[in-house]
Amino acid sequence: MKKLFVGNLPYKTNDAELKEMFSQNGEVTEAVVIMDRERGVSKGFGFVTMTNDAEALAAIEAWNGKDIDGRALTVNEARPQEDRPRRDDFRR
To answer: Has residue 89 got a pLDDT over 60?
Structure first.
């Protein structure tokens, strides 16, 4: 399994559309567009999990820099989330 970061998504893109896009390059086990919890709208990025490295590499090559609705996608291997303070920690 290989997890990919997909940035600069059009804000109207949903999970199903993201999965459909990347399914052109191989089997997608999960596709998630990250949503703003407070406003319920897309944050413009998401993650796609593909079944193997070769398909993930093909997807990166196919989609990185590709123009979708006037936005050039950024697609690369997802890195582990860095530890960072939660936003509400700053409000104290």
So the answer is: no
Residue 50: give the domain boundaries.
2-79
What's the rounded Cα separation, in Å, for the pair 78 and 6?
Answer: 8
The answer to the question of residue 90 being in a domain is no
Q: Got the DSSP string for 33-88?
A: EEE-TTT-SEEEEEEEEESSHHHHHHHHHHHTT-EETTEE-EEEEPPPPPP---GG
Report the chain's mean pLDDT, rounded to a whole number.
91
**pLDDT more than 70, % of the chain:** 89
Number of domains in the chain: 1
